[in-house]
Amino acid sequence: MYTTRSHHWAIALFVVSSLTLPGPFIGCSRNRYYCQADKEAECLIAQKSTDPRWAAPPNFSINMDPRSRYFDNCDQVFPPMPSDDPASNRYMQCVDGMKGYRLWHANGDRKQLDNPDWREKLGETVEMTDDGRVKLTLESAVRLAYIHSPDYQGQLETLYLSALDVSTERFGFATQFFGTNDTTYKAEGPLSDNGRTSTLQTDTGFWLERKFATAGTLVVGFANSIVWQFAGPDTFANVSILNFNLTQPLLRAAGRAIALEELTIVERALLANLRSLQLFRQGFFADISIGSSSGSSLQRVGGLYGGTGMSGFTGTGVGGFGNIGGMYFSASSGTGAGGGTGGGGGGGLAGGGAGNLGGFIGLLQSRQQIHNVEQQLQSRLRAYSLLEAHFKAGTVNLTQVDKLSQSIETQRALLLQAHNSLSNSVENYLINTLGLPPDLPVELDDALIRQFQFISPEISKLQNELGDFLAAFGEEPGEPEVKSLQEWLSRLAGLRSRVEQSAADVDGDLRNMEDRSAARLATMKPSERRAFAKDVRVLYDSLNDLRDRTKKAESKISQLLQQIGPATRRQTADQLVHLVTEISGVADEISLIQARARAESINIQQERLDPDESLDIARANRLDWMNNRAALVNTWRLVLYNANKLQSDLDVVFSGSMNTVGNSPARFRAPTGTMSVGLQFDSPFTRLTERNNFRQSIVDYQQQRRQMIQFEDSVQENLRQLLRNLELNKVNLEIQRRAIAIAIRRADEARLVIGEPPKAPKPGEAADNSPKQLGPTAADDLMSALTDLTASQNILMSVWFDYYATRMALARQMGVMELDEKGMWIDKPLSTAARMRAEEAPLPPSAPDLLKQIEQIQVPAGEKVEQPAIASH
Question: Distance between CA 344 and CA 289 in Å, rounded?
Answer without folding.
Answer: 9
